[in-house]
């Protein structure tokens, strides 16, 4: 019983990020409205970022900012701080994410201008004519 | 068709969930990700750069190429949005369906904005400048500074903001931030060090090599902050007005 | 091997469950403005999750970018398109 409990507690973060990943992928593939597809892309992206940061978490650690002891000496033990490398990668990925979201929304506005709609089937219908 | 998509994705999800069982436990201090490279950063970062926030150190010193080209990506995104929305034939333009009409004088909103915006801007500058010692840095400070101008545009209107911060000035800031970042790297190169090797700034600033790296981190963070702040404003200007820069949200 | 109490797993599970609900709601609501607001709520929840995992810089960025700027630019686009979506 204890092992099953430990098994569930030890992995739930990865499972949640995979569930979110497939919800976003379903939104990108199956939704008809292009705005819904973009929101699906945002969810897909954050699911991957959640996975990366989950890798960097450490039990019994603190935030990756060096602390100082009572004698003003820095405490430089690697096991006392969370892994900073995934944080850096994700920090840049979030800002790039909002830039790609901006480009996607600009293309969406252009589709609205040219075709007068953002429903996928109506856009295809309009292109055929 | 949708049913089929759902079935295929469910099968993929089950396979990947089964594969996730083999991953190391969550928050395990002995997992491979936490034992190879990051202990070096954590143990040597403070001694080499005199900057306690290791995320800032890795972002702006050890992986500064990454951050520089990331700023270039954001810069390119702002230009693409500008080009896509500005030069389009407007033959069949069906929009403005529920455009908000601005009649009342929104006294409460404007009074609140006048109180909040200066505080936000000072906080943004603090976040950029104090990024060495606390969470924060160029990205966060730049986004907060851009958000203060977006708040101004939301509470008054877009024209009011554009009169105060013209689009040409925003674009000069977008390019200027990237130029500042690359310029710091070029100065290091001219002093005989590697590109973005901030220890080369020691001779110019008159400090030791460790403090020179700390100051170099601050300089590139300011460059990133300027780029991110102006890109956020440029995205808002173009997307909220459909490229016309007239009314806004 | 005891589980450290500094990582509150009950709290985590609650946030992750709310995130899944928000993701499904953002994709299934028919009103695009509601979708934008629910996406902002989703960003806020993932920001809580990152604070819990000690990634404070990431949480700070997500709070400013995800819950602030992206919601505003999605709303700014939503005013130019038809507000009701078909699915």
Query: Helical segment tally of chain A?
Result: 4
Number of helices of chain C: 3
What structural class do helix, strand and pairing data of chain C support?
A: mainly alpha
Give the total of beta strands of chain C: 0
Number of strands of chain A: 0
N-end to C-end Cα span of chain C: 49 Å
Taking the sheet with the most strands of chain C, its summary is: none
Beta percentage of chain C is under 5%
Question: What does the radius of gyration of chain C come to?
Answer: 16 Å
Enumerate the spans of chain C where pLDDT stays under 50 for 5 or more consecutive residues: none
Query: Sheet with the most strands of chain A?
Result: none
Question: What's the helical proportion of residues of chain A?
Answer: over 70%
Family (chain A): Belongs to the CPA3 antiporters (TC 2.A.63) subunit C family.
Subcellular location (chain A): Cell membrane
Membrane topology (chain A): Multi-pass membrane protein
Protein name (chain A): NADH-ubiquinone oxidoreductase chain 4L
Can you walk through the features of this model?
The complex is a heterotrimer of chains A (129), B (249) and C (87). Chain A is an all-alpha fold. Helices cover 72% and strands 0% of the residues of chain A. In chain A, helix 1 runs antiparallel to helix 2 and helix 2 packs antiparallel against helix 3. Chain B has a domain at 56-82 and 106-248. In chain B, 71% of the residues lie in helices and 0% in strands. Chain B contains eleven helices and no strands. In chain B, helix 4 crosses helix 5 and helix 5 (64-86) runs antiparallel to helix 9. The longest helix of chain B has 33 residues, at 209-241. Chain B is globular, with a radius of gyration of 23 Å. In chain C, helix 1 (9-28) packs antiparallel against helix 2 and helix 2 (32-52) packs antiparallel against helix 3 (56-78). Chain C contains three helices and no strands. Chain C has one domain (18-79). At the B-C interface, helix 7 and helix 11 of B face helix 3 of C.
